[in-house]
Design a protein that fits this description.
Elements: E1 6-12, H1 16-30, E2 35-38, H2 43-49, H3 55-64, E3 66-71, H4 85-92, E4 97-103, E5 115-121, E6 131-134, E7 137-140, H5 146-163, E8 167-171, H6 179-191, E9 199-203, H7 204-213, E10 220-223, H8 225-239, E11 248-250, E12 257-259, H9 278-291, H10 295-310, H11 332-347
Parallel strand pairs: 1-2, 1-3, 3-12, 5-10, 8-9, 8-10
Antiparallel strand pairs: 4-5, 4-11, 6-7, 11-12
Bound molecules: glycylglycylglycine (GGG).
Residues 71-74, 84, 86-87, 260-261, 264 line the site of glycylglycylglycine.
């Protein structure tokens, strides 16, 4: 069948195993002909099989072209033969542009003015994997290339042109004149290809400050790897919490895409049935929008999530609104059922 949409589910570790099945159900309800396969990866997989990213997992991810990854819990100390499977998978599929849309959801403590897209370079920078110890000195090489910077900048500018957003190029070129200097130069050269898109620039520390002071100030932050990682977590806190933050990593021509919630494996919460599945569900919506070209499905899922939150349903990580302090939070599966019910109501 030529137009069959295919999805590879990789729950991974910790709460990934609890939230990914919920996304599978939501996407199957929204796209009844979706073909779904489930495969394994992660620290637990490594402990059992000696390989954190087994070859059959990589093969399934390539065959489907669309992956929904849960979370991974790599140890903080080096382990012989182990490498982070999510970092390896991103590199294998060369998904170089990480999109993190962040908005102020209707929950206690969120900033309603927040409506931000963070576009993060996903394969270079300090995460290029070039680290070594020389005695008591540790050296981490930060890799920035013109080509790597320009290709993620083109994704950001294309999205900005489609959505009418202003692009802010984030850097620290006043100190890191060589690395961030090249990043800035490459991004501003791409800006020249999109004269219809407004561009400005910001030093990463100043952007962090202004984001907290005035969450509506920025529309699209174009960031090298580490800055994008940090600023998107900061923005997630302003939007209602890490549990609700989605992400999508895209490769060239959108041939490969990996959706994953921004949160990690959360060992303190795992196994209790209380993880927030909304970040993962909203990541599924990003697959529909950017990989499967189904903005109608993405809009429907996002509207269902907004409806559920507006009706006061929340998991324990989301603070209770002042108006309803005694209301009890729900668990992962119940939140999934609430989103499914909201989706079904839209179809009536
Ligand atoms: N869903 C994103 C996620 O799992 N974040 C944590 C992460 O990327 N950790 C890297 C690792 O543990 O290898």
């Amino acid at each position: 069948m030529t137009n069959q949409l295919r999805l590879c589910l990789i729950p991974g570790d910790g709460v990934g195993r609890e939230v990914v099945p919920v996304v599978g159900e939501v996407l199957r309800a929204a796209l009844p002909r979706l073909a779904v396969v489930e495969v394994e990866a992660g620290w637990e997989t490594f402990r059992r099989t000696g390989n954190a990213l087994p070859p059959e997992t990589l093969k399934a991810a390539r065959a489907c072209g669309a992956v929904l990854f849960g979370a991974v819990a790599s140890p903080s100390h080096p382990v012989a033969g182990y490498r982070s499977p999510i970092v390896a998978l991103r590199r294998e599929l060369d998904v170089f542009a990480n999109l993190r849309p962040l908005r102020g959801w209707l929950v206690a403590g969120a900033q309603p003015a927040l409506d931000l897209l963070v576009v993060r370079e996903n394969t270079e920078g300090l995460y290029a994997g070039r680290e070594r110890r020389e005695g008591d000195t540790a050296i981490s090489e930060r890799v920035i290339t013109r080509e790597g910077s320009a290709r993620v900048a083109r994704v950001a500018y294309r999205l900005a042109a489609e959505s009418g957003r202003r692009v802010t190029v984030v850097h620290k070129a006043n100190v890191l004149r060589v690395g961030d200097g090249l990043w800035r130069e490459a991004c501003l050269a791409v800006a020249g290809e999109f004269p219809q898109v407004e561009t400005d620039e910001g030093l990463v520390d100043s952007v962090a400050y202004h984001l907290v002071r005035d969450p509506g100030r920025y529309q699209l932050l174009l960031c090298p790897n580490l800055y994008g990682d940090i600023l998107s977590d900061l923005a997630a806190a302003l939007g209602g919490g890490l549990g609700m933050a989605p992400s999508l990593s895209l490769g060239f021509g959108e041939r490969f895409a990996i959706a994953e919630p921004v949160h990690g494996a959360a060992p303190d919460v795992a196994g209790r049935g209380i993880a927030n599945p909304l970040g993962a569900i909203l990541s599924g919506a990003l697959l529909a929008r950017h990989r499967w070209d189904r903005p109608d499905v993405a809009d429907a899922i996002e509207a269902a999530v907004a409806h559920v939150l507006a009706s006061g349903v929340r998991t324990p990580d989301v603070p209770a609104p002042v108006a309803a302090p005694g209301e009890s939070p729900v668990g992962t599966e119940e939140m999934g059922r609430a989103v499914l019910a909201a989706l079904a109501r839209q179809r009536r």
